[in-house]
UniProtKB/TrEMBL annotation:
Domain AMP-binding enzyme C-terminal: 606-686
Lineage summary: Bacteria, Bacillati, Cyanobacteriota, Cyanophyceae, Chroococcidiopsidales
Top-level lineage group: Bacteria
Location of the Acetyl-coenzyme A synthetase N-terminal domain: 101-158
UniProt-listed PROSITE patterns: AMP_BINDING
A UniProt-annotated Pfam family: AMP-binding
Protein name from the UniProt record: AMP-dependent synthetase and ligase
Stored Gene3D superfamilies: 3.30.300.30, N-terminal domain of ligase-like
Family per similarity comment: Belongs to the ATP-dependent AMP-binding enzyme family.
Organism this protein belongs to: Chroococcidiopsis thermalis (strain PCC 7203)
Transmembrane segments: none
GO molecular function, one term: ligase activity
Domain AMP-dependent synthetase/ligase, first and last residues per copy: 161-517
Amino acid sequence: MKQLSLEQIVNCGVDRQTAIAILPQVERWLAALPAVECWQQLTRHILKPDCPFALHELLYETTFSDWDASQKPAPAWFPSQEEIESTNIAALMHQLQIASYREFHAWSVQNRDRFWEMTIQRLGIRFRQKYTQIVDLSRGVEFPQWLVNARFNIVESCFQAPENSPAIVFQQDGVLSTMTYGELHALSNRVANGLVDWGFRPGDAIAIAMPMTAESVAIYLGIIKAGCVVVSIADSFAANEIAVRLRITQAKAIFTQDYIQRGSKQLPLYTKVIDADAPKAVVLSLDISVSGTLRSGDLAWQKFLSSNERFDALATASEAYTNILFSSGTTGEPKAIPWTQTTPLKCAVDGHLHQDIHPGDVVAWSTNLGWMMGPWLIYASLINRATIALYYDAPTERGFGQFIQAARVNMLGVVPSLVSIWKTTACMQGLDWSAIKAFSSTGECSNPQDMLFLMSLAGYKPIIEYCGGTEIGGAYITGTLVQPAAPATFTTPALGLDFIILEGDRPTNKGELFIIPPSIGLSTTLLNKDHHHVYFADTPSLPSAVRAGLSDQFPNQPVTPQVNPPLLSLRRHGDWIEHLPNGYYRACGRVDDTMNLGGIKVSAVEIEQVLNSVAGIYQTAAIAVSPPEGGPSQLVIFAVVAPDRQQDKATLKTQLQKAIASQLNPLFKIYDLAIVDALPRTASNKVMRRALRDRASSTSVFNK
């Protein structure tokens, strides 16, 4: 029998009189109700957001104390029938007369062309010339052609909401402001006209290195309206990293800002752009004017902007590039991944179905245009006729939570390490987040305890775990609002695509995940690497049952000896996934040496190149290690150092951290430094990072 004592509740930080009042009711529910019903009663009537989180943990663990451990965390949110019926997924299921979600997902991958056509029609995507065929697979799934013969500009589909509807709500200097769809449309037109007036032509690459602001959203949309290509660069990058991205893309101009305001600090940005030897720049200023301090050829924002608020967006083919983003591999140079006109459709459809974004919803995600979730936020919000919520300061403090409250955010996206900060500092306690209907988490592996904490902040709302990549345009595995949500677990492959988990070439419940293409959103080219080599070369063979099923999905495609093999290709992604007995999934990190730190992918080589230049360092190996209880990976450095530095570990760690912050990214934090005599290497002299990872995981690195 499940029992609790008064002292257990008081020890959670609950006032004794309150504990005396709630204990009898809690005991009755624990004794009389099944675990799921008991938990629902507790979350509705006892566990309010202002309760100490320790009480939430105690009651969750007690309620599910007899939960089968092999099933991993018990669900902490269960949708009511009313909540299910209100979702976009339910609307599509009713239209198709499909009874269960599992059947719906199976239908979406067995009828991929019809799935994408239905969702494109549902979102009202605007075409100047409609497609003649949803997908042409005559070259195989590695090179699909989506929306054959279509001509359109995807930005036009971002402006279907009424002009007076709020497109962006933002907070700067403590003031909540709104930009309507009409105002955003006009400002993006002024940007497009400004580019034409400055002599830029369709296809030119134009970089953006700015915080996520109302202006940067308008700039992003204006560049694409003009038929140019956005080069996305995170504002946190050091000058040399900005320079690499400008060089790879041959960018002809850059939009930037004089500095970034973080609390009382002003972090220089324009000077980093200058140090990167950037092409001519348009500079926004937080001051009244910076025109007197600009390089020759650069323009202040107000001087660049055209006064013409009308612009006819350039219609192009579906495969035309709109955005170049970057994702690190393991070679030291980031992969340059082009997004085409169709990639935003993946963003919008995922947002429509998985995050369940509706017209008028307010969507917040602390991100940047340099990472895929920045463009994702634009398309998933605007194409679904929702409102983007942007907070201009750091999301780590209470001010961000107050903004979420004031803006009445309905869908809040997070990175797990950010939630961990909120939990440690208790900075979000006591806020009214009742408007939130769902959270979504991406960027790194989640910790179940932290995700339970996040759910508790809004009176237990679901978390849509969302894992994919820049080269996918969204997720390959995620959750829904029609399935119970268990902390830190996924419930389903994304609608419209599927995957298989293999150990070697054998299906398994825990192993490397391979995507079964095709899907809108999946990249087909890289600017600076061999796309086939990165994603398709030497992938395992499909099991015969899957091969037969995949062939059946495309009965109208030509089948020849040349076409049939690529039609059945698996696509490498590099994630290690566990399929749980209850049908849910758990992310177990990366297969290769690409690390995920604070939601940002970076290769070990990039970090090591920076650290190896520090005085007294002979060699380093950078690895990411997940805590035993799960959660975001932590950066651990193994270093071979000069004899006179071996006794000064703390100082050396500080120096290495400064090197990473100044030359790579200040968001990458060293968790631990291990000084070693030598690095383990293979016969071909490659560092055995897996051995180091195993060593770190088996020691007391997380029990310091």
